[in-house]
C-alpha cells in the first residue's frame, strides 16, 4: 500500500528545492514572488515565483530585437553549435529536469524523462538542420538569368506554451528558431514556471559555454495572459507560436493576424482510433491503453474517441474495461504508477461535468471517480473513464482535458471515418487494421482529416522527426521535424541577371 500512496517518498516541496538548486536556478527566481506554484501530486506549494509585468515584457521584446540583429549574422552552422551545447546540458541534467517535470506537472517518472529526451532529440535534429537550411534554384524563363530562393532569419519568436508539455514544446520551437537565426521569448504556462526556470538556467549555461551569444537571445517571461498579449500584439515579434486550448488560440490567432504577424497554432485535439474486424486485438488494446490513459489523459494527442466495429466490440471492450479497473493510479514518483494526478481541481470538475452530460445521454460509464481523496485531499486523482455511448453527442465533440475515452460502435469503414472526422478538431488519429485497403483508405484524401494519421499505433507519442500539428480547430500549425523550420524564417526570391541585356518577364517590352 505504501508504494501505491506514495508514502515513504520525500516531501515534494523539499525535493523541488533540491532539484532547482541542482539545476542552477537562483533562489530569488522562485521564492517570495507573487505567483504561487503548486504540485499536482499533493497540492502543496512548491514555489512563489516573481512575475513579469506587461512593461517588463515590452522591454524583453526590445532586448530580443537587439539580440536578433546580432544573431542573424552568425553563420547557421555556428548557431547550431549553441543548440548542440544546449543538448549537452539537457543530457547532463536529464534526470533532474525530468524529475522536476514529474513534480510540477504530475507526469510519471518515465514520461518526465521522456519529455527531456524529446528536447535532446530536437536539439540533435536542429544541429543537423543548421547545415541544411536549403533554398531552391529555379530555372529562369529569361536568358542569362538565374533564380533562387534564400531563407533568412525572421526576428524574435514569441513562444507561448501549455502546462502539459511544460518543457518539450519550448524546445520544439526554440531549437529550430535559434538555428534559423531568430531570438526567442518564452511565456510558459502559469501552472509550470519552475521547469521553465530550470530550462532557462540550462540555456544560460549552454550560452556561456558557447561564448559570444548575444545577451537576451532566449528570454523567459513568467506571467499570465496579459504578458502573453504583449507577444501577440507587438509588431516587433513577427512569429508567435502558441500551444494550448482552442479558446486561447482563437484569441491569439486573431490578435497576431490583425497586425499581419505569423502564428503557429497548436491547439486542442479530439483524437480518435478506429478498430476494424481484422485488427490485432492484443496490440490494439496496448496501443489504446497508453494513448487513452497515459499522462492521465492530459496530452493534446490523447485518445478520446474509440470507434469500434461491431464484429470485435465484445472481444475488445470487456478487456479494456478490465485494464481500466486495474491500472495503477497514484503518486507519479512510485514505480507501478501509470496514472498520476490531474493538474488541478478545475480539471477534475471539468471531467465530472463531461461525465454527467454523458450519463444524462444514457451512456454506460466505467470508472471516472476520484480516488485517494482521503490521503491527498488537495490533489485530484481519478480512475480513467471508459464511456460506452450510442451517439457522438455534443460533449463527445468537445475536448475535455482528462482521461475520458468515449466508445462508439460502428458497422462499416465509411461510417467509422464519418464519425472520426465529424468533430471540430483535427490533430491526431489512428486505425487498427490488418487490411491493406482499409489502412490506405484511412491515410488517403478521403480518410482521416487530421495532421497526424497512424496505422496500428495509437494517436499519441509522436517522434520529433515528423511535422507535428493539426487541422481545423487544432489551428493548422506545424512544429518540430520535416520542413517545419520554414515557419521560423522568411523566404526571399532572388533573380540575378548575368547578361548584358534586360529582357522582361512575360515578353513585356518597355523601351525608353
Ligand atoms: P491554456 O490555453 O489554458 O494555456 C496555454 C497558454 O496560453 C498558457 O501559457 C496561457 O497563459 C496562455 N494564454 C491563455 N490565454 C492567452 C491570451 N489571451 N493571450 C496570450 N496567451 C494566453 O492551455 P493549458 O490548459 O495550459 O493546456 C491544455 C491545452 O493545450 C489542451 O487544449 C491541449 O490539447 C492543448 N495542447 C495542444 C498541443 C498541440 O501541440 N496541439 C500540445 C499541448 C497542449
Sum this structure up briefly:
The chain has 512 residues and is α/β, with parallel strands linked by helices. The chain has 15 helices and 23 strands. The strands form seven sheets. It has a seven-stranded mixed beta sheet, sandwiched between helices. The chain has a five-stranded parallel beta sheet with strand order 7-6-5-8-9, sandwiched between helices. A three-stranded antiparallel beta sheet has the order 3-4-23, with no helix packed on it.
Kindly describe this structure.
Belongs to the aldehyde dehydrogenase family. The active site is at 266. It is a single chain. It is built from 15 helices and 23 strands. With 512 residues, it is an alpha/beta fold. The mean pLDDT is 97. Nicotinamide-adenine-dinucleotide (NAD) binds next to helix 9 and helix 10.
Helix content: 25-40%
**Any ligands, ions or cofactors bound here, and which?**
nicotinamide-adenine-dinucleotide
Distance between the ends: 92 Å
Percentage beta strand = 15-25%
Poorly predicted runs of 5 or more residues: none
Number of helical regions: 15
Categorize the overall geometry. globular
The count of β-strands is: 23
Tell me the major beta sheet. Answer: 7 strands, mixed
Estimate the mean pLDDT confidence.
Answer: 97
Question: How does the helix and strand content classify structurally?
Answer: alpha/beta
Main sheet strand line-up: 12-15-16-11-10-18-19
- Radius of gyration, CA atoms, in whole angstroms: 24 Å
Family: Belongs to the aldehyde dehydrogenase family.
Subunit structure: Homotetramer.
Keywords: NAD, Oxidoreductase
Enzyme class: oxidoreductase
Amino acid at each position: 500500500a505504501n508504494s501505491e500512496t506514495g508514502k515513504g517518498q520525500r516531501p515534494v516541496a523539499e525535493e523541488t528545492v533540491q532539484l532547482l538548486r541542482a539545476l542552477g536556478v537562483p533562489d530569488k527566481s522562485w521564492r517570495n514572488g507573487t505567483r504561487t506554484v503548486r504540485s499536482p501530486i499533493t497540492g502543496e506549494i512548491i514555489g512563489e515565483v516573481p512575475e513579469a509585468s506587461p512593461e517588463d515584457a515590452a522591454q524583453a521584446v526590445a532586448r530580443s530585437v537587439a539580440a536578433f540583429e546580432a544573431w542573424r549574422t552568425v553563420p547557421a552552422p555556428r548557431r547550431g553549435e549553441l543548440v548542440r551545447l544546449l543538448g549537452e546540458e539537457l543530457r547532463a541534467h536529464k534526470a533532474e529536469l525530468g524529475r522536476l517535470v514529474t513534480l510540477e506537472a504530475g507526469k510519471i517518472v518515465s514520461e518526465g524523462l521522456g519529455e527531456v529526451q524529446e528536447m535532446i532529440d530536437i536539439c540533435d535534429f536542429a544541429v543537423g538542420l543548421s547545415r541544411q537550411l536549403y533554398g531552391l534554384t529555379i530555372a529562369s524563363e529569361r536568358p542569362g538569368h538565374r533564380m533562387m530562393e534564400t531563407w533568412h532569419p525572421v526576428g524574435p519568436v514569441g513562444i507561448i506554451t501549455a502546462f502539459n508539455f511544460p518543457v518539450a514544446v519550448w524546445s520544439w520551437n526554440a531549437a529550430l528558431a535559434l538555428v534559423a537565426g531568430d531570438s526567442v521569448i518564452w511565456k510558459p504556462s502559469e501552472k509550470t514556471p519552475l521547469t521553465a526556470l530550470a530550462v532557462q538556467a540550462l540555456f544560460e549555461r549552454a550560452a556561456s559555454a558557447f561564448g559570444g551569444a548575444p545577451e537576451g537571445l532566449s528570454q523567459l517571461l513568467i506571467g499570465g495572459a496579459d504578458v502573453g498579449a504583449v507577444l501577440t500584439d507587438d509588431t516587433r515579434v513577427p512569429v508567435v507560436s502558441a500551444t494550448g486550448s482552442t479558446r486561447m488560440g482563437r484569441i491569439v490567432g486573431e490578435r497576431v493576424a490583425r497586425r499581419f504577424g505569423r502564428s503557429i497554432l497548436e491547439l486542442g485535439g479530439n483524437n480518435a482510433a478506429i478498430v476494424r474486424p481484422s485488427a490485432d486485438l492484443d496490440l490494439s488494446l496496448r496501443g489504446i491503453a497508453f494513448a487513452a490513459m497515459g499522462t492521465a489523459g492530459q496530452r493534446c494527442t490523447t485518445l478520446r474517441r474509440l470507434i469500434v466495429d461491431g464484429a470485435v466490440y465484445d472481444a475488445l471492450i470487456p478487456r479494456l474495461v478490465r485494464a481500466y479497473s486495474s491500472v495503477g493510479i497514484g503518486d507519479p514518483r512510485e514505480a507501478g504508477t501509470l496514472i498520476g494526478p490531474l493538474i488541478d481541481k478545475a480539471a477534475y470538475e471539468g471531467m465530472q461535468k463531461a461525465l454527467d452530460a454523458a450519463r444524462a445521454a444514457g451512456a454506460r460509464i466505467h470508472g471516472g471517480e476520484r480516488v485517494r481523496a482521503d490521503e491527498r485531499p488537495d490533489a485530484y486523482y481519478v480512475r480513467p473513464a471508459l464511456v460506452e455511448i450510442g451517439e457522438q453527442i455534443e460533449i463527445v465533440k468537445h475536448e475535455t482535458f482528462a482521461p475520458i475515452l468515449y466508445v462508439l460502435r460502428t458497422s462499416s469503414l465509411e461510417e467509422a471515418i464519418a464519425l472520426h472526422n465529424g468533430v471540430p478538431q483535427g490533430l491526431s488519429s489512428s486505425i487498427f487494421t490488418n487490411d491493406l485497403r482499409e489502412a490506405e483508405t484511412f491515410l488517403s484524401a478521403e480518410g482521416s482529416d487530421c495532421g497526424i494519421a497512424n496505422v496500428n499505433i495509437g494517436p499519441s507519442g509522436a517522434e520529433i522527426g515528423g511535422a507535428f500539428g493539426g487541422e481545423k480547430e487544432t489551428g493548422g500549425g506545424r512544429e518540430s521535424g520535416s520542413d517545419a523550420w520554414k515557419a521560423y524564417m522568411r523566404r526571399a526570391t532572388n533573380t540575378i541577371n548575368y547578361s548584358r541585356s534586360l529582357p522582361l518577364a512575360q515578353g513585356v517590352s518597355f523601351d525608353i
